[in-house]
Write a structure and sequence with these properties.
Elements lengths: L1 H9 L16 H5 L6 E2 L17 E6 L3 H11 L5 H20 L6 E5 L6 H5 L3 H14 L6 E2 L4 E3 L9 H11 E3 L7 E9 L3 H12 L3 E10 L6 E2 L5
Protein backbone atom coordinates (compact mmCIF):
# COMPACT_ATOMS: atom_id res chain seq x y z
CA UNK A 1 0.00 0.00 0.00
CA UNK A 2 2.78 2.44 0.94
CA UNK A 3 4.66 1.68 -2.28
CA UNK A 4 1.51 2.34 -4.35
CA UNK A 5 0.88 5.66 -2.58
CA UNK A 6 4.50 6.71 -3.13
CA UNK A 7 4.25 5.84 -6.83
CA UNK A 8 1.18 8.05 -7.11
CA UNK A 9 3.05 10.95 -5.61
CA UNK A 10 5.80 10.58 -8.24
CA UNK A 11 3.47 9.83 -11.18
CA UNK A 12 -0.08 10.95 -10.24
CA UNK A 13 -2.86 8.67 -11.47
CA UNK A 14 -5.81 10.36 -13.12
CA UNK A 15 -8.74 9.60 -15.38
CA UNK A 16 -7.71 10.36 -19.00
CA UNK A 17 -11.21 11.59 -19.76
CA UNK A 18 -11.87 14.18 -17.07
CA UNK A 19 -8.64 14.38 -15.08
CA UNK A 20 -10.15 13.06 -11.84
CA UNK A 21 -7.27 12.23 -9.53
CA UNK A 22 -6.40 8.92 -7.92
CA UNK A 23 -8.33 6.77 -10.40
CA UNK A 24 -7.28 5.08 -13.63
CA UNK A 25 -10.61 6.11 -15.15
CA UNK A 26 -13.92 7.17 -13.70
CA UNK A 27 -17.16 5.30 -14.37
CA UNK A 28 -18.77 8.22 -16.18
CA UNK A 29 -15.95 8.62 -18.70
CA UNK A 30 -15.59 4.88 -19.19
CA UNK A 31 -19.30 4.37 -19.84
CA UNK A 32 -19.33 5.66 -23.43
CA UNK A 33 -16.94 2.88 -24.48
CA UNK A 34 -19.78 0.46 -23.74
CA UNK A 35 -22.17 2.00 -26.28
CA UNK A 36 -23.48 0.05 -29.26
CA UNK A 37 -21.23 0.69 -32.30
CA UNK A 38 -22.51 3.25 -34.81
CA UNK A 39 -22.36 3.17 -38.59
CA UNK A 40 -20.32 6.26 -39.45
CA UNK A 41 -19.17 6.05 -43.07
CA UNK A 42 -21.37 9.05 -43.95
CA UNK A 43 -19.00 11.20 -41.89
CA UNK A 44 -15.90 10.37 -43.96
CA UNK A 45 -15.51 12.34 -47.22
CA UNK A 46 -12.53 10.28 -48.40
CA UNK A 47 -14.24 6.88 -48.15
CA UNK A 48 -16.31 7.50 -51.28
CA UNK A 49 -13.57 8.01 -53.86
CA UNK A 50 -13.36 7.52 -57.64
CA UNK A 51 -16.93 6.24 -57.85
CA UNK A 52 -16.25 3.54 -55.28
CA UNK A 53 -19.15 3.08 -52.84
CA UNK A 54 -18.33 4.17 -49.31
CA UNK A 55 -16.97 1.37 -47.17
CA UNK A 56 -19.31 0.51 -44.27
CA UNK A 57 -17.61 1.56 -41.03
CA UNK A 58 -18.61 1.03 -37.42
CA UNK A 59 -17.22 3.12 -34.55
CA UNK A 60 -17.48 2.45 -30.83
CA UNK A 61 -17.77 6.13 -29.91
CA UNK A 62 -17.00 9.66 -31.03
CA UNK A 63 -13.60 11.30 -30.67
CA UNK A 64 -14.83 14.10 -28.47
CA UNK A 65 -14.91 14.86 -24.78
CA UNK A 66 -13.59 12.06 -22.56
CA UNK A 67 -12.98 9.66 -25.48
CA UNK A 68 -10.48 12.07 -26.99
CA UNK A 69 -8.56 12.06 -23.73
CA UNK A 70 -8.56 8.26 -23.61
CA UNK A 71 -7.21 7.89 -27.16
CA UNK A 72 -4.58 10.61 -26.74
CA UNK A 73 -3.34 9.17 -23.45
CA UNK A 74 -3.25 5.68 -24.98
CA UNK A 75 -1.42 6.60 -28.17
CA UNK A 76 0.84 9.44 -27.10
CA UNK A 77 0.71 9.66 -23.31
CA UNK A 78 2.31 6.35 -22.42
CA UNK A 79 -0.81 5.01 -20.70
CA UNK A 80 -0.16 1.32 -21.25
CA UNK A 81 -2.81 0.56 -18.61
CA UNK A 82 -5.33 1.57 -21.30
CA UNK A 83 -4.22 -1.26 -23.60
CA UNK A 84 -6.57 -3.71 -21.96
CA UNK A 85 -9.39 -1.20 -21.52
CA UNK A 86 -9.53 -0.19 -25.19
CA UNK A 87 -8.85 -3.74 -26.40
CA UNK A 88 -11.93 -4.85 -24.51
CA UNK A 89 -13.94 -2.03 -26.10
CA UNK A 90 -12.84 -3.26 -29.55
CA UNK A 91 -13.63 -6.86 -28.60
CA UNK A 92 -17.16 -5.95 -27.47
CA UNK A 93 -17.76 -4.00 -30.68
CA UNK A 94 -16.59 -6.92 -32.84
CA UNK A 95 -18.94 -9.23 -30.96
CA UNK A 96 -21.81 -6.82 -31.67
CA UNK A 97 -21.18 -6.56 -35.42
CA UNK A 98 -20.22 -10.22 -35.82
CA UNK A 99 -23.70 -11.41 -36.86
CA UNK A 100 -23.60 -9.00 -39.82
CA UNK A 101 -20.45 -10.73 -41.10
CA UNK A 102 -21.59 -14.34 -40.86
CA UNK A 103 -22.83 -14.59 -44.47
CA UNK A 104 -19.70 -13.15 -46.09
CA UNK A 105 -17.88 -15.46 -48.51
CA UNK A 106 -14.33 -16.72 -48.24
CA UNK A 107 -12.07 -17.21 -45.22
CA UNK A 108 -12.19 -14.20 -42.92
CA UNK A 109 -9.12 -12.15 -42.01
CA UNK A 110 -8.66 -9.04 -39.86
CA UNK A 111 -6.15 -6.47 -41.07
CA UNK A 112 -5.21 -3.18 -39.47
CA UNK A 113 -4.18 0.21 -40.77
CA UNK A 114 -0.43 -0.03 -40.15
CA UNK A 115 1.49 2.39 -37.98
CA UNK A 116 4.28 4.53 -39.29
CA UNK A 117 7.75 2.97 -38.93
CA UNK A 118 9.07 3.35 -35.39
CA UNK A 119 5.66 3.99 -33.79
CA UNK A 120 5.52 0.67 -31.96
CA UNK A 121 9.03 1.14 -30.62
CA UNK A 122 8.25 4.68 -29.44
CA UNK A 123 5.00 3.68 -27.75
CA UNK A 124 6.24 0.41 -26.32
CA UNK A 125 3.40 -1.56 -27.91
CA UNK A 126 2.15 -2.35 -31.42
CA UNK A 127 -1.29 -0.76 -31.03
CA UNK A 128 -2.76 -1.80 -34.43
CA UNK A 129 -1.82 -5.40 -33.74
CA UNK A 130 -3.42 -5.12 -30.31
CA UNK A 131 -6.71 -4.00 -31.89
CA UNK A 132 -6.50 -6.79 -34.48
CA UNK A 133 -6.25 -9.43 -31.77
CA UNK A 134 -9.10 -7.88 -29.83
CA UNK A 135 -11.38 -7.85 -32.89
CA UNK A 136 -10.52 -11.49 -33.61
CA UNK A 137 -11.46 -12.42 -30.04
CA UNK A 138 -14.77 -10.60 -30.38
CA UNK A 139 -15.66 -12.40 -33.59
CA UNK A 140 -14.65 -15.74 -32.08
CA UNK A 141 -17.16 -15.10 -29.29
CA UNK A 142 -19.97 -15.31 -31.88
CA UNK A 143 -18.49 -18.30 -33.70
CA UNK A 144 -16.49 -16.53 -36.42
CA UNK A 145 -12.89 -17.60 -36.83
CA UNK A 146 -10.66 -14.90 -38.31
CA UNK A 147 -7.00 -15.05 -39.31
CA UNK A 148 -4.69 -12.43 -37.82
CA UNK A 149 -3.67 -10.17 -40.71
CA UNK A 150 -1.90 -7.52 -38.64
CA UNK A 151 1.35 -8.10 -40.56
CA UNK A 152 -0.18 -8.14 -44.03
CA UNK A 153 0.29 -4.42 -44.69
CA UNK A 154 3.34 -2.23 -44.27
CA UNK A 155 3.74 1.53 -44.50
CA UNK A 156 6.88 3.05 -45.97
CA UNK A 157 8.70 5.98 -44.41
CA UNK A 158 7.47 8.28 -47.15
CA UNK A 159 3.91 8.40 -45.83
CA UNK A 160 2.85 11.83 -44.59
CA UNK A 161 -0.13 12.78 -42.42
CA UNK A 162 -0.77 16.26 -43.81
CA UNK A 163 -3.79 18.48 -43.42
CA UNK A 164 -5.20 17.71 -46.87
CA UNK A 165 -7.50 14.69 -46.96
CA UNK A 166 -6.77 14.12 -50.66
CA UNK A 167 -3.01 14.31 -50.12
CA UNK A 168 -3.26 11.90 -47.21
CA UNK A 169 -5.28 9.44 -49.30
CA UNK A 170 -2.86 9.67 -52.20
CA UNK A 171 0.08 9.29 -49.84
CA UNK A 172 -1.48 6.20 -48.28
CA UNK A 173 -2.01 4.67 -51.72
CA UNK A 174 1.61 5.20 -52.67
CA UNK A 175 3.19 4.05 -49.42
CA UNK A 176 1.23 0.87 -48.64
CA UNK A 177 2.70 -2.55 -49.40
CA UNK A 178 0.77 -5.84 -49.23
CA UNK A 179 3.31 -8.30 -47.83
CA UNK A 180 1.31 -11.55 -47.84
CA UNK A 181 -1.12 -13.34 -50.19
CA UNK A 182 -4.70 -12.19 -49.61
CA UNK A 183 -6.43 -13.23 -52.84
CA UNK A 184 -9.80 -14.81 -52.07
CA UNK A 185 -9.83 -13.54 -48.51
CA UNK A 186 -12.61 -11.48 -46.95
CA UNK A 187 -10.97 -8.83 -44.80
CA UNK A 188 -12.33 -6.67 -41.99
CA UNK A 189 -10.16 -3.57 -41.46
CA UNK A 190 -9.61 -2.22 -37.95
CA UNK A 191 -8.13 1.10 -36.84
CA UNK A 192 -8.08 3.36 -33.80
CA UNK A 193 -9.61 6.57 -35.21
CA UNK A 194 -11.40 7.53 -38.43
CA UNK A 195 -11.12 11.19 -39.40
CA UNK A 196 -11.54 11.75 -43.15
CA UNK A 197 -11.53 8.04 -44.03
CA UNK A 198 -8.41 8.45 -46.17
CA UNK A 199 -6.44 5.74 -44.37
CA UNK A 200 -9.29 3.24 -44.51
CA UNK A 201 -9.88 3.98 -48.20
CA UNK A 202 -6.20 3.51 -49.00
CA UNK A 203 -6.00 0.21 -47.12
CA UNK A 204 -9.21 -1.11 -48.71
CA UNK A 205 -7.96 -0.22 -52.18
CA UNK A 206 -4.58 -1.91 -51.63
CA UNK A 207 -6.21 -5.09 -50.36
CA UNK A 208 -8.73 -5.18 -53.18
CA UNK A 209 -5.99 -4.70 -55.77
CA UNK A 210 -4.33 -7.76 -54.24
CA UNK A 211 -7.50 -9.81 -54.75
CA UNK A 212 -9.22 -9.55 -51.36
CA UNK A 213 -12.81 -8.53 -50.62
CA UNK A 214 -13.16 -5.74 -48.06
CA UNK A 215 -16.77 -5.49 -46.83
CA UNK A 216 -16.39 -3.27 -43.76
CA UNK A 217 -14.18 -1.61 -41.16
CA UNK A 218 -14.33 -1.21 -37.38
CA UNK A 219 -12.70 1.67 -35.47
CA UNK A 220 -12.56 2.73 -31.86
CA UNK A 221 -13.63 6.33 -32.49
CA UNK A 222 -14.87 8.67 -35.21
CA UNK A 223 -13.89 12.31 -35.32
CA UNK A 224 -17.32 13.77 -36.15
CA UNK A 225 -20.36 11.86 -34.89
CA UNK A 226 -23.18 14.32 -35.48
CA UNK A 227 -24.92 12.45 -38.31
CA UNK A 228 -24.03 8.88 -37.33
CA UNK A 229 -26.85 6.37 -37.11
CA UNK A 230 -26.94 3.15 -35.14
CA UNK A 231 -27.09 0.08 -37.37
CA UNK A 232 -26.32 -3.61 -37.21
CA UNK A 233 -26.19 -4.82 -40.81
CA UNK A 234 -24.09 -4.16 -43.89
CA UNK A 235 -27.00 -2.83 -45.93
Amino acid sequence: MAARDLARLVVPVECPGCGARDTLWCDECAAEWWDTPLRVESLAPRLDVEDRPALPVWAVTSLSGPAHGFVTAWKDGGRRDLDRFLSEAMERAATTIGPALTQLPGPLMIACVPSRPGAARRRGRDLPRLLTGAAAAGLAAVGLEATDGSRVLALSRGEQRGSSARRRWQGMRQSLTVRAPVAGRTILIVDDVMTTGASLAGVAEALERAGAAVPAALVLAVAEPARAKAATGLG
